[in-house]
Amino acid sequence: MVTRRLDGLLHGDYLGLLPGAGSEPGEAREYRAGDDVRRMDWPVTARTTVPHVRTTIADRELETWLAIDLSPSLDFGTVGMLKRELAEGAVAAFSYLAGRGGNRIGAVVTEGGPAKAIPPRPGRGGARSLLRTVTALPRGEGADRMKAEGRNAPVQGLADLIDKTRRHARRRGLAVVISDFLEDEDNPSDWSRELRRLAVRQQVLCVEVLDPAELALPDVGVLDLIDPETGATVEIQTGNARFRARYAEAAAEQRARIAAGIRSGGAAHLRLSTGSDWLRDIAAFVAERRHLAAYR
Questions:
Q1: How big is the CA angle at 75 (ends 212 and 250), to the nearest 5 degrees?
Q2: Nearest residue to 69 (alpha-carbon basis) of 118, 120, 125, 134
Q3: Alpha helices in 123-277 (DSSP H)
Q4: Which residues in the chain land under pLDDT 50?
Q5: Does residue 49 come out as left (phi exceeding 0), alpha (psi in the -120 to 50 range) or beta?
Q6: What is the pLDDT of residue 149?
Q7: Which of 20, 38, 137, 156 has the fewest CB atoms within 10 Å distance of its CB?
Q8: What is the maximum span of the chain, computed from C-alpha positions, in angstroms?
Q9: pTM for the full model?
């Protein structure tokens, strides 16, 4: 389904998942307002007396690493799928896109405990193998599963996942971080700093996975809620309009902080929701990036 729909939504030759400026030198052209002055071609400029810049050829063969967060907070969904299932769908989509042209794909995945590395393999065969490994990981209710494993709280945070991805991604290429970016606000990890370190050698894309109920509460009366990370419970009255407004305001502030952290980490940002056509959102994002790259 992923392959068929993406082929139908994205047309044209393969130009890379996130086309960038590239690293191989290309042709020289006249300088235009907005060009990076660091690419000035001084010999041609001196010879012609007209400012010129040296273009670069976009890289085609890349090594892609997926940092996949399947911590218990993703065992939640109110529309038709869990956030975990959406994250797995994103893994399938980006593995397919990145694996075209024989590119190598690896992953580092965590369910809240120690991260597991999946060595990179080339092409669609590597993408299928990676997806099988990810979807075969044990699933269940987050708090119950952690209790059965003798864990009362997540051992590894998002910063650890990104750091381990950086350590494995030794070649220049693409890194895709798939997570809901939700962490304990009393003990947050500095994942934005780790993003900046990852972005030194990698082109980084952050895929934020969310559910509509995380942005606005419906009016459905009294709800008993369970934190899938810790097992803590709380009873709330969703019939209170003032409470729902405060919840929506706090949720918007939380998502703004996440977006700011991703921007400060030097990464591209794609938000996917369980309540939307997420494959169309991915295709629109990739098409927009290709369009922007064509005019650089």
A1: 40
A2: 134
A3: 123-135, 142-148, 158-168, 191-198, 241-264
A4: 13-15, 20, 141-143, 151-155
A5: left
A6: 54
A7: 38
A8: 76
A9: 0.79
Phi-psi region of 39 (alpha: psi -120 to 50; beta: other; left: phi over 0): alpha
SS3 137: coil
91-to-140, 167, 234 alpha-carbon distances in Å:
19, 20, 32
> Which of 77, 70, 165, 147 lies closest to 112 in space, CA to CA?
70
**The tokens of 224 are what?**
């008993």
For residues 78 and 238, give the distance between their C-alpha atoms in angstroms, rounded to a whole number: 15
- Beta strands 63-69; 173-179: pairing state: parallel
Identify which of 234, 159, 246 has the alpha carbon closest to the alpha carbon of residue 195.
159
**CB count, 10 Å around CB of 94?**
25
